[in-house]
């Protein structure tokens, strides 16, 4: 039996979806105005700067960004042509490779990050109270934990990112929205 959203849940869900789409559009436009990189470039560069040696296996990068293998491959190739990253072969696995941050990539993210942070501050955090910041973090962490543990994580881990997957929710399982 389908568990339909209650009216207040429906209003909250639709408001969230509208806000997320509009926020992403604003941040993407601002990134392209303020820097020479896209939001997708920024996402890749953030992943690289968050690792101790500024290098990540290609498939690990695809998984962390939730991108298909073909998308990550093409995007990294474009970034490589622009000198933002380079690929290095993996010594222990001839089939795999690493994406490595270059000096130009570091300069690009260092130039883009301040205006991006200011825009996030202006569009999000200037609009909400400290209590709402805490609630936003708590809600986000709760949903993230739901999506990355148990049955929900098993569904994602059990399929290749390039393959279509049919998910049949089970009671207590990971509901589709």
Could you please describe the fold and organization of this structure?
61% of the residues lie in helices and 10% in strands. It contains 7 helices and 3 strands. Strand 2 (85-90) and strand 3 (93-101) form a beta hairpin. Helix 1 (7-34) crosses helix 5, helix 2 packs across helix 5 (103-123) and helix 3 packs across helix 4 (69-81). The radius of gyration is 19 Å and the shape is globular. Mean pLDDT is 87; it is low at 160-177.
Short structural summary:
The protein is mainly alpha-helical and 177 residues long. A 3-stranded antiparallel sheet has the order 1-3-2.
Fraction in beta strands: 5-15%
End-to-end Cα distance = 15 Å
N-to-C order of helices and strands: HHEHHEEHHH
Largest sheet descriptor:
3 strands, antiparallel
Q: Order of strands across the widest beta sheet?
A: 1-3-2
Helix content: 55-70%
